[in-house]
Amino acid sequence: MKKFRRYLALTVWVSAIVLMFVSCESDLDVKQVYSFSLETMPVQKKIVNGETAEIRCTLVREGDYDQARYFIRYFQPDGKGELRMDDGTVFAPNDLYPLEKMVFRLYYTSHCEDQQVIDVYIQDNYGQVVSASFSFQNDGKDDTEDE
Question: What global pTM score does this model have?
Answer without folding.
Answer: 0.73
